[in-house]
Amino acid sequence: MRARLRPGFFLRYARPLMTRVSLLALLSALLLPAAAQELKPLPPAPAPALELRDLKGAQHKLADYRGKVVLVNFWATWCVPCRDEMPSIERLRASLEGRPFAVLAVNLAEPEASIQKFLDAVSLGFPVLLDRDAKVTRAWQARALPTTYIVAPDGTVRYRHLGELDWSKPEVRRFVTGLMK
């Protein structure tokens, strides 16, 4: 014998429960610490073109970094997680000094004065590139900030991370050094 539900049962009991479960899942995802998230491995694919000028006017092409692992970070000074993760990116860069590793920080369409003000407060040993028209950001499909990609020495994108990450953690460093030849 099959039980029959009364009319309105779903609206009264099941839907509110489903809404609560969905809300809890959403809150859990939002409240997870960014440091607990991992780098997302990607199927190796050629990196999109990247050719931008830095604050000093020097031209940087991703192709010129062939043979190195390159961390490409899309960021902005108004983005708090972007600002917060910059020191850890610098610590990673410093820890790998002398090895085939480079960092390119791509700023999303901000005035140079805003960027320079941030850099006056935070010392970075890597170039900050200016994506004034956001074409490079769109080509890389960086839809949220910060978004970071790890490019292998052969020019293929191997990892992506959305959001803030402590780049100086040993397990993150292992991902990077694992790509070095």
Description:
With 181 residues, this protein is α/β, with parallel strands linked by helices. It has a single domain, classed as Glutaredoxin (3-Layer(aba) Sandwich), CATH 3.40.30.10. 35% of the residues lie in helices and 24% in strands. The protein has five helices and eight strands, in the order αββββαβαβαββα. It has helices spanning 9-31, 80-95, 112-121, 135-139, 170-178; strands at 40-46, 51-53, 59-61, 69-75, 101-108, 128-131, 147-151, 156-162. The strands form two sheets. It has a six-stranded mixed sheet with strand order 1-8-7-4-5-6. It has a two-stranded antiparallel sheet with strand order 2-3. Strand 5, helix 3 and strand 6 form a beta-alpha-beta unit. It is globular, with a radius of gyration of 21 Å. Mean pLDDT is 87; it is low at 17-36.
List the helices and strands and how they pair.
Layout: H1 9-31, E1 40-46, E2 51-53, E3 59-61, E4 69-75, H2 80-95, E5 101-108, H3 112-121, E6 128-131, H4 135-139, E7 147-151, E8 156-162, H5 170-178
